[in-house]
């Protein structure tokens, strides 16, 4: 079995001749590639080695969660080399493939199943997400006008950028599909004078958002409904969906765009902010099982086609991939700063799994297939929209008393 790992290491060095790392086994043996290793991959058990060989990243992830694999040094360097040789694409054992096939069938984001999937990820305690995300409670990619932007600044930038792209005007009525803890709606109401309805299927998110909205004196402007986005009702001047679509899976993309078209006024604008891929990729089995059941980063072509099929013209498309790693870096800082409390709240397995998820997420945007798209659409043709992005001015954090409450 050790020969397989040596072969993988040689493939990594062929793909990246400057690679420097070390591998150690439970019995004291191992090998080193180059001088001054950037990371050390440690197999604490024979079982962990077997799992990685037979089940690729699923085996790595589960072994890491159990403490049977350790990585000293920069784990992102390991993932970088993994992406260079397409390690995640290695075939898994027949038994695991059968188990995952059953899991994928159960976890599909049908209307009946979606609420359980979202509850698994988001109803684990708002106190945890406050530690991870900070007081703003925004769990989507931020927007950095400068590498020196704080997380609050960058999240404010992102919400303001979306407001500008949607050309929000005072008095408009907007919808937020998959509204999270209500941060975007509160920003839009306070800074652009709109009213709005948010749709979520997380009970904890809804309760939290309602309390925050009341505390900021916005209860007469914003409503939060415990309703699946595919069943959103009402008619709106503008529609936003920020970080929801990646939870849906490819089969559910058309129904979402159908619903956007149904609730959007003629000539209205809609913006989708979502993780996606340039082309269709397999579902990540470890992420699907342990972090976000039912999730799938859909190909851009599926989203654009679904929009067109429902009379939505894509008028602006932007890839904000490079903004994701610095966003995750802030989340990781918050996570590590609160590690003792998080461990007390959950357990060591949760801590190891969530840290692994954050590291994988950052690496997948730096070197993998993940992208972060902004799709701006109109319902019907519009000839009065700006022909360039010159109207999108760089945002400056105009923090008011409520912006980070």
UniProtKB/TrEMBL annotation:
The keyword S-adenosyl-L-methionine applies. InterPro entries: CFA/CMAS (IPR050723), CMAS (IPR003333), DUF7884 (IPR057206), SAM-dependent_MTases_sf (IPR029063). The keyword Methyltransferase applies. CDD domains: AdoMet_MTases. Keywords: Lipid metabolism, Methyltransferase, S-adenosyl-L-methionine, Transferase. Pfam families: CMAS, DUF7884. It comes from the Bacteria. GO terms for molecular function: methyltransferase activity. Residues 18-80 form the DUF7884 domain. Its EC number is 2.1.1.-. Transmembrane segments: none annotated. SUPFAM superfamilies: S-adenosyl-L-methionine-dependent methyltransferases. GO terms for biological process: methylation. Belongs to the CFA/CMAS family. PANTHER family: CYCLOPROPANE-FATTY-ACYL-PHOSPHOLIPID SYNTHASE. This is Cyclopropane-fatty-acyl-phospholipid synthase family protein. It comes from Pseudodonghicola flavimaris.
